[in-house]
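Illustration 12: Formamidopyrimidine-DNA glycosylase.
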Amino acid sequence: MPELPEVEVVRRGLERWVCGRTVAAVDVLHPRAIRRHLAGPGDFAAQLVGRRLGTARRRGKYLWLPLETEGPTGPDRAILAHLGMSGQLLVQPHEAPDEKHLRIRIRFADDAGTELRFVDQRTFGGLSLHDTVPGDPEGLPDVIAHIARDPLDPAFDEAAFHAALRRRRTTIKRALLDQSLISGVGNIYADEALWRSRLHYDRSTATLTRPRSTELLTHIREVMNEALAVGGTSFDSLYVNVNGESGYFDRSLDAYGREDEPCRRCGTAMRRRPWMNRSSYFCPRCQRPPRPHAAS
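Figure caption equivalent — predicted structure in token form:
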């Protein structure tokens, strides 16, 4: 699944190529792509035509385009994009051949010569229209109002995060993947930040001191910013920006996907363990399993 850096790369592309444009026509080519819009394809298209797209926004892994409206109340509706495992938002010339798995086409009322396409091989993703949180200047869709801010958000509350972390009766990696506590962190970047912090994924959150959780947050931000600088992590051709280009942070990963390779810090063979239908990668020497009631 794409994580914060991959979604932010797409958001930046939408901001450059799509925001501020008025929708002229919408073609829904596969009903599953708008299955979260319960009113159906016709209503989805009717509500978009004639509307101007606002600035692309993101909270954690969630991406949306507010629909601009007159007056001081802010956007009242927004397009929420669910990328799923293989969803792509591509800006393509009108004359470009249709992709094999093209699901939705959005054309604009201008002469820029490009359109927005939603392409999804596995059809787990989709687009949907939602009301926004009343008065929210970013047009936050109400269905994701419960999602916490992410660590790259200037409004992220570090003190509240530290306090909530200590209150949780869970392990550190579970906490990092809890989108109501901190958003945008997925399996890849959790493993990377934990490796940098020398923390085992099963460490209890109750044992983390404020300096240790501050250090962890710092490493989360570092690894996400480094990934952003090179376009995110692309393990296959499905994770791309709006121009269809892959990121290459996978070449710089220190933990994820490196089973049996030497730890870049101490040389010990990296290990992989099954974890919540996923895998956790760690160094058994640098990230020692937790001992009961241990704290640092």
